[in-house]
Amino acid sequence: MNYSCVPCNRSFSSSRAFEQHKKNSPMHKKTFSCETCNCTFRSEKALVRHRLQCKVDQEASLNHHPDEAALSTVLARCSILDTSAFTFQNSAQTLLSANPVAITTTPPKIAKSKRFRLKQETREYFMFPELHSKIAEAVLPEIITIWFNENDDDENFSCRYHTHMMGKFTCHNNECKKELWTSKKVAIEISGYGRNGYRAIVYNQRCKSCNCLGTFVMDEESYIERISYRIKRWAGVEVMQPDYDRKLTKPHEQDYCEGCKRGKCTEGDDL
């Protein structure tokens, strides 16, 4: 009985000699086999080209592997002994282009974003110790040292003055249609203490539409001007009174002013 080696075109008289030939021959060191056609190729590229041109193999692939997931099974049928030349990805892309399959994808679910709700203001009055350094600069060079009293309950003041400043308010009630309003009559109470100490309390206003407290944004220039002027006057410094804007404004809404409710606003009836 003869044993034939098709790739080498040689015949052997015994199976032992044939097996030894396949073990030692360079032709058999790197081979790529197609079990469907019982063919052997020296390179993966030749195997892929064979599979694209082989009608029988194409029909088998289409009949038995109708989806993309079966491509791995198609490649597994070919016993690839060496994948150094080409990657599995290149082979899969080549087969997919020759045998297009229907691919169904499901779009990812996108979580609905939560509606952003602004936090409503709860403070009826404010203090701004972070602006003390600017007040200290404004009273120079006449007054070298001043200090800010952050105790809003300290009634041991030596003098007190009520005035107004400017600012704007925003309503953060999500159910209210009124968004913001401006005011030139924001009540401010300035108290004086020993050694040029002072405390300034600014009173909030309420929304006329829903009666909620507003979020206050001050006019910083008017705040610094009012307080520095009053500190100088209490210290005996001769200063010229600022020329405040005397334009006519809308009537002050006493019912919505926290200063008026406490008798701290010059526009109220209790001061």
Features:
single chain; 271 residues; alpha+beta; 6-stranded mixed beta sheet; 8 helices; 10 strands
Describe this structure in words.
This protein is an alpha+beta fold. It folds into two domains: 31-98, no CATH class; 125-261, no CATH class. Helices cover 27% and strands 20% of the residues. The chain contains eight helices and ten strands. The strands form three sheets. Strands 5, 6, 7, 8, 9 and 10 form a six-stranded mixed β-sheet that branches. Mean pLDDT is 80; it is low at 78-88. GO terms for molecular function: zinc ion binding. InterPro entries: ZAR1/RTP1-5-like_Znf-3CxxC, Znf_C2H2_jaz, Znf_C2H2_sf, Znf_C2H2_type. It comes from Cochliobolus sativus (strain ND90Pr / ATCC 201652) (Common root rot and spot blotch fungus). This is C2H2-type domain-containing protein. Keywords: Metal-binding, Zinc, Zinc-finger.
What's a quick, concise take on this entry?
The protein has 271 residues and is an alpha+beta fold.
Q: So what's the overall shape?
A: rod-shaped
Strand content: 15-25%
The count of domains is 2
Annotation field: number of helices: 8
Order of helices and strands: EEHEEHHHHEHEEEEEHH
Mean pLDDT equals 80
What are the low-pLDDT stretches, counting only 5+ consecutive residues below 50? Answer: 78-88
Helix fraction by DSSP (H/I, runs of at least 4): 25-40%
End-to-end gap:
127 Å
**Helix/strand/pairing category:** alpha+beta
